[in-house]
Each structure stands twice: as structure tokens, then as C-alpha cells.
Amino acid sequence: MRIRLDIAYLGTRFEGWQVQDVVRDGARPRTVQGDVQSALARLHGTEIAIHGAGRTDAGVHADGQVAHFDVPDGAPEIPLPGLSRGLNSILGEDVRVLSAAEVASDWHARFSAAGKVYVYRLRLGEVLHPHRGLVEALWRGRLDVDAMRRAAARLVGERDFARFSAGSHVADTVRRLVRLEVGSEDGGLVTFTAAANGFLRGMVRRLVGTLREVGRGRVAPEDALDRPGPTAEARGLTLARVIYPPDQLK
Amino acid sequence: MRIRLDIAYLGTRFEGWQVQDVVRDGARPRTVQGDVQSALARLHGTEIAIHGAGRTDAGVHADGQVAHFDVPDGAPEIPLPGLSRGLNSILGEDVRVLSAAEVASDWHARFSAAGKVYVYRLRLGEVLHPHRGLVEALWRGRLDVDAMRRAAARLVGERDFARFSAGSHVADTVRRLVRLEVGSEDGGLVTFTAAANGFLRGMVRRLVGTLREVGRGRVAPEDALDRPGPTAEARGLTLARVIYPPDQLK
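Predict the joint structure of the above. Result:
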């Protein structure tokens, strides 16, 4: 039996999604995958590996991460939604299983996905509010939202994003960026929404860093493609949603 | 020179606002007042006492706590807004000085206040979202919002709220509760907004606990005044605003 888990987390105190095979200060780095796997092992009495839709970096958050696992032969089949309740009673408050559902045995959290949507939150001002600032990054200055929107329109498309990666080791660096929107709310919050069939490592944060350089007037909107900017801070980034058919990437 | 500080904090990791004269596990309990006073002492090179508008309990948050202090004779007068920037660079991320302003020497954060507004956030459902759940409490079940609104209308008024206190030692327990509103948002968030010229210790949380008993059908709306309920969890409560003239309590 294959189970899909929808997971939200605050990345602040995690060293990313993926289990790391290292020991630091006498312990494994705390990862979301590691915590969920430990909780599953406790509930089922046996080791269980989960497969995530994407590997978020240290400090990056998720609203809608998706993962799957197979209930091992002989392990108890825990009825849903008792499973998510059980997992949440074991997990720290900064990671929550939002839902658990049975899926087809050939469904795969990563390979069945049509794409992903990320949101980056940049607060313009002097301070991050302690109630919501953990999922935002701070920018002390102004940004030209119109210029960033013009630049974003030029970045959208199917192209080789190798130069917008923070060091990726994949062979194929072509991605289809179908949406890159810049929103602006009262109170000085600028949001960047990026949707693509896949993202290279660090790609959203470099796209945001690039647009930010445009927004502060250092790069012209029409030059954005040729002048990748720095990698924006991890804390502003949230994996908002993973898209599976029949939902379309748009 | 007297300075007013507007302060927001996430109460989760604080044992309340007020400095406590006890030692636990070899240390003073962490309090918001204590942290701000330490930061002020570091900036000014001398001890400085601050006076808050109200003492929030352990785990209670603030959007708009207000405090004042006097710059001691001989201490450097740090120009505003360099003061809030300096304080925020010393303080933990869970407490932020939103603004600092000079006030008249007879202005007092507590005694000049006309009243306070508190908001309580109760999430109906199975899980608290890790991005915003730290300022919410969870309720696994349904609540009858209309019944709670009818009960709230009966609680409003000037009356002796001694029975709605979690053990207050003040002599005068009469308070003027001018507003007690129950809001309901999509996604299952119920908000309670309470405004009064003053609150007894634990009073907002007991008002919420009382309305919750009405909401679940255990107490009739017309009996709410005579049947104070339990004290709702601290984590859902936020000191939203302190009101000073010329602003009116309403």
C-alpha cells in the first residue's frame, strides 16, 4: 500500500528536506525527511523510507510539500486519518502532516509531478514582525516593482537556466518557467511567485536575487537574462504547491 | 528624556512580560521586559527600567505592547530611530521594537492608557499550520458562532469581572468591557476581539473559555455571565493594541 503525505514545515530549524549522511557535533543534522521517517518508523515498528517531491534547502519552508512511502509487508496498516494524527503527535510543531491518502502503487511524489510553485516573501522596511517574519526576508530599501515585473516577463519561458543555479550537478539544465509574478501588498510585502516543470538547485532564490537587482536599479529589465543576480536568503522561500495531473502547470 | 517603545513579540519562548525575581535552573526566567531592559543597558552603559502598559502572561503574544523609560542623567541620548535599530540588533528575533518616540515627561505607558484590545485566535481543525500556528490555539470540533455572539453581547458592559479572573489580587475588579466580538474566517479560524478599559489577570482567556463552552453547546448564551468557563490556552492570545487619548476606547 502506497501512501501520499502532504506536509507543511517551517524550515528555520531544519537543515533542509533531505537526510544527510554526515554527523555533526555528534548528531545527524535535523532534516524534515529524517524527522518524518523517524516518526513513521515509530508508528510502524520498522524503518520506512519516504520520497519527497523536491529537496528544499536549509531554511526553506513548505506549505505543500508532498512525499510518498510504501507500508512494508507485515507492518500494521494504520487507518487514515489516524496516521496523520499519530505522526503529528510525534513530530515537532514546526512540521505538520496536513493529510495522508492512499495512492496507486505506481504513483510517485517526484516523478508523477507536473511541476512546482514557489513563493518568495520579501518585506521592505526596518523589521520583520515576530509573528510572521520567519517566512519572510527583509529588504531595507525601495524596489521598483514595475521594473521587476518587466524583467520577470523576460525570464519566463523554456530555456537553459544553468546560470541561475547555485551549483547544480544535473546534466539537463533546461527548465520551463511558466510563471514568474511579482506581487506587492500594503505594508510593504513584495511576493515573487515562480512556477516551473522543475527547478535547478537554488534557482528560485537566484531568480529573486536577479529581480531584486533590477528593482534597485542596478540592472535594466532587458538585461536580467544575461545578468543573474545573487542568491536571495533562504528564509523568504516557501515551496507552495506541487502540481499533479489532472491539474495543469500554469 | 522619556521614550515610548512600541513592541511586538512572539510569546512562545518567554515566561511573560514581567521580570521575575526568581532563579530557575540557575537562571532568571526569560521575560520580554528583562530582554528589553538588558538591551537598553547595553546601549546606554547603565541599568534602565522600563514600564509596560500591561503584563502579558507566559506564552501570550503582542502586536502592540507599549512601554516607556527615562534616559538616565549622564547616559548618552541615542538618536531615534537609531535606538530601535540598535535594540533590534541586540534582541532575539522573537521580540522587535517597532518604533521609538520621545514623549512628555508625565506620559506613562500604563497610567496614560485608556484601554487595551486583545485578540484571541482559535483554529478549528486537526492541525495548526507551522507558519502561523504559534499565535493560534487549536480546537478539534465545531463551535456555534452565532450562539457565541449572543453570549458575547451579554458579557459586554461595566461590571465586576472577579469571577472571570484567573486569580487577581487587585481590590477593584470592576472593568468596562466595551467590545467582545466573535469573528469567523474561511479556513476555520475563529477570532475573539476584546476591548476594555482594563483587564483582570487571565480575564480574556476566561472570557474566551466561557464563549467556547457556549459554542460547543454546554452553556446557553443567556447563562454565560453566571457560568464562567475554563481559561483558554495562552498561545492563542495576542495583545493587539493599547489605546491612548485622543484615541477612544470602543
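The radius of gyration of chain A is 19 Å.
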